[in-house]
Amino acid sequence: MAARLAFVEIKVIPLTERMLREVKRFYDDILGLPCPPVPTLLSADRYEHATAFLQEELEEFKQAHDEGDITGAIDGLLDLIYVALGRLLEMGVPPGPTFEEVHTANMTKKRGQTKRSGILYDAVKPPTWKPPEFQWLLDLTPDDTKVLQSRPSATAELYWAEPSKAVVCDFLDTQDAQKVGPLGKPQIALIPYEALVVEAEGWAYGAYKKYTPWNWVEGRKYSEVVSSVYHHIAAWFDRETFDQESNVHHLGLARCNLAMLISWDMHQRTEFDDRRPASSVVIHTPSPLAIPMHKRESSEKGDII
User: Fold this and answer.
1) Cross-strand bridge partners of residue 242
2) d(Cα 261, Cα 45) in Å, to the nearest integer?
3) Which of 64, 153, 174, 205 is the S-S candidate for 73 at Cβ 3.0 to 4.6 Å?
4) Helix (H) or strand (E) holding 271
5) 157-175: buried (b, 16+ CB within 10 Å) or exposed (e) per residue?
């Protein structure tokens, strides 16, 4: 029971990201395996090694399963994943975004029977099914790969591991343009120092007194974080400067919450997104009172404003 409780208390990062991180660490630190700067097929000898290695792990799973050895079967399956992820890394392929592309295509299939006879749980491709699309991957350059693989750990270990093709493509577009936004690179120096300090105090309180460092990466429902933002802004607007629990500036805590939402949104962490469905959002025709006074006259005449 104690071991089970200890397991429950462990704070883990998303599974795909963790698996990739550990496999990459093994191939870097133990094997010293070089990775190409762009997606590349394996050399002839490495291809022979890969297929033999994968077959070996598959045979281990089959043998263990046939012998009723569940621990051996588990080990065989996980070794298959380990070896397969290693081959993707060896080919210079970012496993996170490519996995998401395959998963997205699979989720558009329907349950049904295929030519594989005797399979109870199977999926068929509907007429509208589209295969995974990897052209964006072939557009990677060596410089792109170098930047993607060396980004510092923040909300995720690497963009390389982030499960979103769109995130990687958007980032590469940014790199190509050598700018972020219409005004060039972000001007961090323009952020008021006081604002950075009170936000940093909020992060420190959450990391070392209330939760643990980086616990927020695990995510929360967007609505819970938005409610917290409203709470802190309302309290500050009601002339309570510091949060009674943490003694941190309310606006600093609001900034922390907004930073979480920005990070999750930029990394497309849709599993936390509980905003109202887009189909339920009603766009109302604005009241004349909502139109600035200097534009009301032209609006009443039917001009476009």
Assistant:
1) 249
2) 47
3) 64
4) none
5) bbbbbbbbbebbeebbeee
Q: Which residues partner with 244 through β-bridges? A: none
**What whole-number distance in Å separates Cα of residue 45 and Cα of residue 231?**
61
Looking only at Cα atoms, what is the longest distance across the chain? 85
Closest CA to 50 of 30, 33, 70: 33
Separation of alpha carbons 242 and 253, rounded Å: 10
Is this prediction's pTM over 0.70?
A: no
In order of 39, 93, 175, 179, the CA distances from 141 in angstroms are 9, 12, 11, 18
Q: In whole angstroms, what is the distance from residue 89 CA to residue 179 CA?
A: 28
Alpha carbon distance 299, 305 (integer Å): 6
Question: What φ, ψ does residue 156 adopt, rounded to 5°?
Answer: -140, 155
Closest CA to 213 of 155, 160, 157: 155
Tokens of 294: 């200097």
Q: What is the residue type of 36?
A: P
* 281, amino acid identity: V
Separation between Cα atoms, residue 196 and residue 259, nearest integer Å: 12
Per-domain residue ranges for the chain? 188-280
Whole-angstrom distance, CA of residue 82 vs CA of residue 136: 25
Closest C-alpha among 101, 161, 179 to residue 136: 101
pLDDT tens-digit profile, the chain (305 residues): 333 333 333 333 456 667 777 887 888 788 887 778 778 899 999 999 999 999 999 999 999 999 999 999 999 999 998 999 889 888 888 777 777 778 888 888 888 776 665 666 677 888 888 888 887 777 767 666 666 555 544 333 444 454 455 555 665 555 555 444 444 567 787 888 899 999 999 999 998 898 888 889 888 899 999 999 999 999 999 999 999 999 999 999 999 999 999 988 888 888 888 988 766 655 555 555 545 554 445 444 444 33
